[in-house]
Predict the structure.
Amino acid sequence: MFQVSGDKKERKGKKKAAAVMSSEAEDDSDSSTKPIKPDPKRDTASMFQAGGDSHREKKTKKKALPKATGEQSEGEASESPPKNSNKKGKGKKAKKKEERPPSPVIEVDSLEDFVLQPAPQGVTIKCRVTRDKKGMDRGLYPTYYLHLDNEKKVFLLAGRKRKKSKTSNYLISIDPTDLSRGGENFIGKLRSNLMGTKFTVFDNGVNPDRANADWSNVRQELSAVVYETNVLGFKGPRKMTVIIPGMNSDNERVPIRPRNDNDGLLTRWQNKSMDNLIELHNKAPVWNDETQSYVLNFHGRVTHASVKNFQIVHSDDLDYIVMQFGRVADDAFTMDYNYPLCAVQAFAIALSSFDGKLACE
């Protein structure tokens, strides 16, 4: 399914032209207010297959259809507000706020299992991220909470930046009141490089120095995020690359357990050693002359302009949104993810966008 359909070639060429400083008006077709429905005969999973072998499992499109009807509300949100950020076309979007479609019914039996399992194929897991800045030091170290965006508002994850770390280091927990590294609720962490432009997401396994005989207890790398540095200081949309482990023939994540720092996802990506790895990118926003800003179509799920708004796609199918994230209030954001991501991967990628990246702004 991850093949570009013919009528998208024109769009693809256009998007390459939309560089960080580009302000040319785009084709009407670029605003993609009506998503192109992919050919149901093509397989969503095959693009995420480890080792490039094609896995044919034509099942999930029927599940997606009921949800798709709820997502047709045409809501575009600016990704990067311009200098005169008062003109964001909010008048048009105000009525969309209450139309955000909720998540389908998701059963969470074991929270620890759920947050590490890939989203089922054909099901979009719709979530809400809230940022809590209250308290003595939460202005600098806010706590972030992830809930399912449905009537029950089921809690999934909490994350907070560690205070005594040389680099940005976020702990992720399945208990909103226990954000300690040694606690039994610790489920993963997000760690950045010194510049704050590259991030790695780990599960709760141990450091390779403390490996057991068969290495089964060593931490897995679940994802890496790279923000393109903007050394000239130009303002414009952020550019990000996401590297994730590929999926095996049973649609399970291939374990990536590096034995040292030179064997991780970032190093493999930099060396173009992409065996069992998948490379994703943020979808390039389109310049809108009317609102004087870069816009992406979030189908009503995002209502406020922000440089943090993004959609993650595979380059072979720009209409299959692997993940999207965007602001709906000052301290509230929606986060939706699809196969092959799990909640920990998506939440950690979202947390990376909150970090202060001086070199990327």
